[in-house]
Each structure stands twice: as C-alpha cells, then as structure tokens.
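Exercise 7. Given the components listed, write out the predicted structure of the assembled complex. Treat all entries as one system.
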Amino acid sequence: DTEVTQTPKHLVMGMTNKKSLKCEQHMGHRAMYWYKQKAKKPPELMFVYSYEKLSINESVPSRFSPECPNSSLLNLHLHALQPEDSALYLCASSHSITGFSEPQHFGDGTRLSIL
Amino acid sequence: AQSVTQPDIHITVSEGASLELRCNYSYGATPYLFWYVQSPGQGLQLLLKYFSGDTLVQGIKGFEAEFKRSQSSFNLRKPSVHWSDAAEYFCAVGQRYGNKLVFGAGTILRVKS
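Answer.
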C-alpha cells in the first residue's frame, strides 16, 4: 500500500477541458513533488513545494498550475493541455526540504490521456 | 552536473538465478544514491538508499546494493530472482543542497520461468 494517494487513477480529457489532479500524504512530510513520466522513460521533475511554498518550477508550461492548499495536499490544475501532455503524473513527498538527500515516497500516479 | 547511467535497457534472467543491475553515477561531492522499482501501472517504490557508512546496503524484497566510490558505481543485486521481481528499476542520485533527483534511464527486468 502506498502512503501517497493520488486521484483519479485515470483521466481522459479534451484539449479545452479544465481538470485537477489530487495528491494526499499523511506522513508529515514537508516537501511535495509533481513528476511527469512518459512511457519507458524516467520521471521528470515538474514542481517542488517546501512548507507549502513553491520552491522549484522546472520551466513547466503555464497550462499546468500547481497548488498546495495545506501540508498534506497537493493539486495540479490542468487547462488547455496538448496531446503531448499525455503521460503518467506522479506525486511524491519527502521529509527533507533542503535538497534531495532523503528518499521520496511516490504515489501510484494518474494516467492522463489528452484527446 | 550530476548524471546517472544504467547501461542495460533490458535484462532477462531465469527465475531462481542471481541478478545484478548496473548503475554508474557522475557527481563530485558525496552522492545520495537510491534504487527504485516500478511495476506496470504503479508508482515508484524505494528499494534501498545509500547516504554514508557501510558500503553494502540491504533493502526490501531481498535486494542489496554496493557503493563503490572508486568505480562510481552503485549496483543492485539479488541472489535469487522471483517472477514477481519483473519490473522496471531506476537508479537515482541526489545531493543534500541540490535541486533535482537525477534518474537513470531505467532497466527493464524480465524473469523467465
């Protein structure tokens, strides 16, 4: 069982839709992450939140909008996505907020398909 | 810049045989090294990590890895593979004050009966 919960597990949306991905952790972790993973590739970092503040944005297009309402929740708002945005979106959390020296705990991801 | 190389894209082993997955890293300071496993349709699960100390680290599911500074390697091993070990394995390196966890390209493990 994963300790990071992501919903929904699958999402199909059109290019004009607005949807949100949700992530929740109850391990008291202070850092949370969004990754994008294409098939047969490693995860690519998108955003990092530390203490509910955005600390890293890996030059992600503005059609992806992250939000961290509290220390346990992380959202990724999607709008006007492109077909190339179809991927597995992974959420992760970790205790460390000063870099990446501690393990990250991953959710099972949301499989996103853009029509 | 940090980099991680996993030379083997695919590996096939027989059930019960031993396994070694290779990982080489490039990083000037003390690396923080991780092995993750990903089963189809699932997220990444941490197998083990190395920060310092004993260079042979034990992980979950019977896996172990050995850190060799002189070879810049952190190879993953298992003495006897089970069919359920079939998955993709990622080696990753982080740094204490860095801003990114760098993943290798991954190695897909197939287990034949």
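Discussion: The mean pLDDT of chain A is 92. Chain A touches chain B at residues 2, 4, 6, 40-43, 45, 48, 56, 58, 90, 92, 98-109, 111 (CB under 8 Å).
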